[in-house]
Amino acid sequence: MQQRLHLIRDRHLRKPSRISDKPRRNPDRLNHAPDRSETALLMIDVINDLEFEGGDKLLPHALAMAGALAELKRRAKANGMPVIYANDNFGRWRSDFPKIVDQFLRPNVRGRPVVAQLRPEEDDYFVLKPKHSAFFQTNLDILLRYLGVNTLILTGMAGDICVLFSANDAYMRDLRIIVPPDCIASEEAERSRQALSLMQRVLKADTTTLSLDLHLGDKTKIK
User: Which of 77, 90, 122, 130 is the most exposed place for a label (fewest CB within 10 A)?
Assistant: First the structure.
C-alpha cells in the first residue's frame, strides 16, 4: 500500500516533458534519421569533378541529366521524400563530403557546372562510398531501414557503372527500383541505353518513366 502511494505521489509531481510538445517523425528513439518514407531519391556520384579520362565525353550527358535531376529533387523534397547522396570519396580518406563539394565548385573544374546545379542541401543525407556500388561498405543499408524505404529512385552517373552496380545491390535487398532515363548519364548514350535495358530485364526496374512523369504527390508511394 505504501509503495502504491509513492507511485501515485511521484506521478503527480512529475512535470510534463517539453520534448513531447513536438512529436518525432520517426518513433525509434535510437534512430537519428528523422524522416519516414517508403520511397527515397538516391543520387549517385553527382558531386564529381569529371577530371578523369572520358570525363570530357561524360560532361555533356551529365549537364543534360543535371537539369532534369535538379527538378526531380525539388519535387521529391516538396513531397517529403528523403534525398540521399551516395558519392565516391575519390581516395580522399581524410576528407569529408562538404569539403569535396567545395573543392569541385572551384573555377576551372570540369564538373563544376554539374555540381553547381546538384549541390546538397543541409537536410539531405549522404554516404561516402569507396567503390562502385552505393551499398558496398557504406551505411546506406541501415539508413534505408531506418527511413522505412522499400522503393529507390536511382539517379546519377555513370549509368553503366555505379548506377548499374547500385541497382544490382538494391535488387538483392528486395528493393523496388526506379531509374528515370533522363536522370542518369554515361560517357555515351548507348551505354546508358544498354544499362537501362539490363536493369529492366534482370532487375525488374522501371526504366521507362521520365522524371517529370513520376507521380510524387503521395510522399509514400510512386504510382
Answer: 122
